[in-house]
Each structure stands twice: as C-alpha cells, then as structure tokens.
Amino acid sequence: KSFVQTIGEEQIQNPYTELLVLKGHQDIVRFLVQIDDCRFASAGDDGIIFLWNAQTGEKLYELHGHTHKITAIAPFSSSDVTEEKTDLIITASADRTVIIWDCASGRQVQKVSCFHSTVKCLTVLQRLNVWLSGGSDLCVWNRNLDLLCKTSHLTDAGISALVELPKNCVAAAVGKELIIFRLSATNNESEGWNIVEVKRLVDHQDNISSLVSVNDLTFVTGSHVGELIVWDALDWTKQASECNFWDSSVHPDVQPEIKLSQSPHETSVQHLASDKECVFAAVGKGIYVYNLQMKRVIACQRTAHDSSVLHIEKLSNRQLISCSEDGSVRIWELREKQQLPAEPVPTGFFNMWGFGRANKQANQAAKKMQENTPVYFLELVGDLIGHSSAVQMFLYFGELGLATCSADHLIILWKDGERESSLRSLTLFKKLAQNGDLQLKL
C-alpha cells in the first residue's frame, strides 16, 4: 500500500493549468539553467544544448559541438565594467571537452579539450571573474579558457560537486571527503593564480551526493546514506548534523512503513536547497525541512512521491516544489499546525502522595515549550502530471511559470492559466482597438 498523498482534480491553489511542450532533444534532458529573466538553456544525454524563451516557448538556438552527453552546465555573465554585459554559458561533456557559448548569437566562443577525464561539475566565481572545473583534478580558468592553475590528480572517482565559500575558498566533494581549497592571485603583474588544499573533512560515512551554500557563514552537505551536515563556512567546523530522516521514532506522527530493510537508495540525499533559514532536503522518496536555528527537522513528507525525489526548491512564498523519478511535479505548502492547549494535571490521588506540585511544574514547562515551539507540516496543494518519465529538475520563472525537463526527452513550460487568459484578452482588445483606429482613418 502506498502512503503517498493524493489530490483531486479540484486543485484550487495550483495556478499551473496550461502547459507548453517543448520538443527538440533526442535523449534524456538532465539540465536546465537560467540565463536571464526570460531565457534558459537545456542540455542532456544527446550532447545538444537548446536556448529557449520562457514566455513563449520559442526555440532560440540549437548548439552543436559536443559528441557525447552533457555532464555539467553553468551560466557565466561577463563582469567587466568596460565591456557591454555578455551572457555566456559553459558546458562540459563526457567527450572530455568544455565549450563556452555566446547566448546572444548562439555561437561557440571557445573550446578546450585538454582534460584527462570527464568534467563532472562547473562553478563560476563571478567576483574573481574565473570559473572552476571539477573532475579528476580541480582547474581554474578565465573567460578566454586560459588555464590559470590546477591541483594535482585527486582520485579516479574525481570531484562530484563544488560550492563557493567566503575568502576565495571552495569546497569540493571527493567521495566521502570534503576538501577545502583556497584560490589566491600571485603578486606579479602577470595573471597568475595559485590553488592550495587547506583542509580535508572526513565526517561523512558515505559518498557526498549534494552540496548547498546557505549564506556567507554556513554551507550544508548530504550523503548517500542520509547524513546531513551543517558546516561553518569560515573555519569549516561541523555545526550540526541530522541522520535520522527515515527513522519513524523521530517523527512519531507519521505513519510508519513496514520494510525488511532500508536500502541506501531510499535514504540518499539527492538534492539540497536553502532559503537562509531552513535547508530543504530531497531524501529518498521524501522531502524534509531542516531549521538551521533549531537544528532539527521541523516538517516532512516521508513519502512525498512514489519514487526518489530528484530536485527540490523553495519559492518566495511558503511553497515548495519537488520532482521525482515517478514523473510527477508537486507543489507543497509549509503550514503551521494549530496547537492544542495542554491538558490540566488531574487532582486527587496524585496530590495525596505529593505528586501534584511536581506534575504541575512539569506540565507548565511542557506547556511553555509547546507554546514556544511551532509545529509545521507540508500540505500537498498541486500535482503537475505531464511527463511520462523521471523529471530530472525544474526552473521557476515567477509569473512566467515553471520549466521542467525529463527522461521522456521533453521540456514542459507550466503556465498560470488565469494570467495567460488575461494576456490573450489584452492582446485581442489591443488588436480590436488598432483595427478601429484604422477604420476611423479610412
């Protein structure tokens, strides 16, 4: 029996009642990256990159240059004040090449193919106007694809994820280890850089699967066995941890599932997101809200989807969006539970033996703690059914809607039906007004 929540056809709080299906990819679409307020790029296993208009769904460019699947993609806008702002994207592929593309023209700017292994992750350091590639080693590059410096060979498994830290540092996930590197520019006039390993953190019991920066003081990591660790971003010390996401004793109000064993796949932290106050974790089939100040999980849906949750994001309101291998995209709202008043301590027998005062004090303490600790829950308010296979990730464009990509080779733009209807009416009225003016002139 499935414990996944269901929602009927009457989805009052779900605005996405229209959809646009974008076709072009020939294989799994794994990546979406936002270029600006109304443009985004998609990439996947066919090695092709498409640029799209998020408002109209128009295909702007089709970028060919890689011969194998795309393994990483990142936007890179020029920050030189002397130049006009240029929107670029960087793509890495299993063909062991990296290409920089110009989003305005769709042309290939630079290509480098000197890598000894596949680049698995890309991170842009806008403030330093450089970008990093992570594979079997960590490389630092400028906008012209000049290699500024690199580390020695790390492991055959290589770097799986990178996150930027303060003071020109980055954290790299290499298997179970988290390696802190520091970048520094040389003092001479040439564009020289050094990259130095400054610390290795070995607190995780299994491979690190997700990294997220919370703010200038904090970042968080998650592993394949469901560990979440909160780190100080300045001195890289462990601040807090959570590893009981799937433990029903931690969340007694959630109906437990009967299982013979808990496989690692069901407890893996697939994705992390943050809104400065909380970390939102996709763990197995569930989604969890971890409050950084309270240092505990404040809300969860242990079976938010029928299969593993692959991506999760918090919107500007109290809503979350999650997508899954089961092909669904779901909207959740974080709500506060109405607390019931604490029951008074019964008198009589306990008072006779002198227990009344102690129980009264304990009850007051429990009541005070209950009043000061809000309890939250996640309520399903929308279910977007359109993909026929695993939804890999999504991008939220505010009033322009939501873009999702899937193993079914499709991208879907989910639109606010009421807004789109109003826009169509407005366009029609303008045309009628223009025709009326034209007739008057004639």
From TrEMBL:
Ranges that cross the membrane: none
Main localisation: cytoplasm
InterPro entries, alphabetized: WD40/YVTN_repeat-like_dom_sf, WD40_PAC1, WD40_repeat_CS, WD40_repeat_dom_sf, WD40_rpt, WDR41
Subcellular location(s) per record: Cytoplasm
Function of the molecule: Non-catalytic component of the C9orf72-SMCR8 complex, a complex that has guanine nucleotide exchange factor (GEF) activity and regulates autophagy. The C9orf72-SMCR8 complex promotes the exchange of GDP to GTP, converting inactive GDP-bound RAB8A and RAB39B into their active GTP-bound form, thereby promoting autophagosome maturation. As part of the C9orf72-SMCR8 complex, stimulates RAB8A and RAB11A GTPase activity in vitro, however WDR42 is shown not be an essential complex component for this function.
Superkingdom in the source lineage: Eukaryota
GO BP term (any one): autophagy
Statement: the UniProt record of this protein carries the keyword Thylakoid: no
Keyword Repeat in annotation: yes
Lineage: Eukaryota, Metazoa, Chordata, Craniata, Vertebrata
GO cellular component: lysosomal membrane
Cross-referenced SUPFAM superfamilies: WD40 repeat-like
Protein name from the UniProt record: WD repeat-containing protein 41
